[in-house]
Design a protein that fits this description.
Elements lengths: L5 H23 L4 H14 L9 E7 L2 E9 L2 E8 L8 H14 L3 E5 L3 E8 L5 E9 L8 H8 L3 H4 L3 H11 L2 H8 L2 H14 L7 H12 L7 H15 L17
Parallel strand pairs: 3-4
Antiparallel strand pairs: 1-2, 2-3, 4-5, 5-6
Length: 259
């Protein structure tokens, strides 16, 4: 959990109150993309703390096309921001657009917004390049009394950049997700502890580690946590922590659907 400086909390509170009213009016009037860009630029300055005329760049040229906004601190780009008109849903085509901008610019972080909805993506430059939606928020539904919601603003604010707050949040999200937790539950040390606990509670019951693992896979865990790519990433991290060799374990056949 990030610690938000008091002066930043004050800025968030006053800025959100101001722009919730502005955004509601803009939504009712169905303003166009150009006017939405103007509002977002003001939000970046008044809510997120960036210098409007020196740290927020408009119409950044990337391979003969343009990204609407970019954050540039001390000559280094931090975020690319693609803005759509306030009444436009943030569809997958727009995600690909901003991801392509980030890829061509070599940036790890890109943002897609229509002023109200904000989506923050992390790019990983593997082959192929991966883009992950790390988190999103809706300005109109933010609860100013809940600091965990205001943290979502803080991670992309100017004050967070020097503290690696966004990267720390990414690590937290990668750790506290269903793929990672699922693989932790299936790891040898955890299964050994489960077996030990069962034997303590029911000494007469004889179960093997493989039997416990099969029950976890078929009856306890959900099918979607077995996405191969994300499972492999989680398994590598767990094996590294336990200093164990990585095993390509055979998949257990699922005869029944996992609820």
């Amino acid at each position: 959990m990030a610690t938000i400086p008091p002066k930043v909390l004050v800025r968030f509170t006053s800025g959100i109150k101001k722009f919730q009213s502005i955004l509601k009016s803009a939504e009712e009037n169905d303003i166009n993309e150009s006017d939405t860009v103007t509002i977002v630029m003001d939000m970046l300055a008044e809510i997120f703390g960036y210098e409007k005329y020196s740290e927020i760049t408009s119409e950044l040229a990337i391979k003969k096309t343009y990204c609407d906004l970019a954050i540039k601190i001390n000559g280094e780009f931090k975020f690319l921001i693609e803005v759509k008109a306030i009444g436009i849903d943030l569809k997958s085509d727009y995600v690909r657009q901003v991801v392509n901008y980030g890829t061509n610019q070599g940036l790890d972080w890109v943002i897609l917004t229509n002023g109200i909805c904000w989506e923050i993506f992390r790019l990983t430059f593997d082959k192929p390049i991966k883009d992950d939606l790390i988190y999103e928020f809706d300005i109109l539904s933010l609860n100013l009394k809940k600091e965990n919601e205001l943290e979502l603003l803080y991670y992309i604010s100017k004050e967070s950049l020097g503290r690696s707050a966004l990267e720390d949040y990414l690590i937290e999200r990668l750790t506290l997700n269903k793929f990672f937790i699922g693989q932790v539950l299936l790891s040898e040390p955890v299964i050994a502890n489960i077996r030990k606990t069962i034997r303590k509670i029911c000494p007469e019951v004889k179960v093997t580690a493989d039997e416990i693992k099969e029950v976890l896979i078929t009856d306890v865990l959900r099918r979607e946590i077995f996405d191969e790519e994300k499972v492999n990433e989680a398994r590598k991290k767990i094996n590294k922590a336990f200093k164990a060799p990585i095993k390509n374990e055979p998949q257990i056949k699922l005869d029944q659907p996992i609820l």
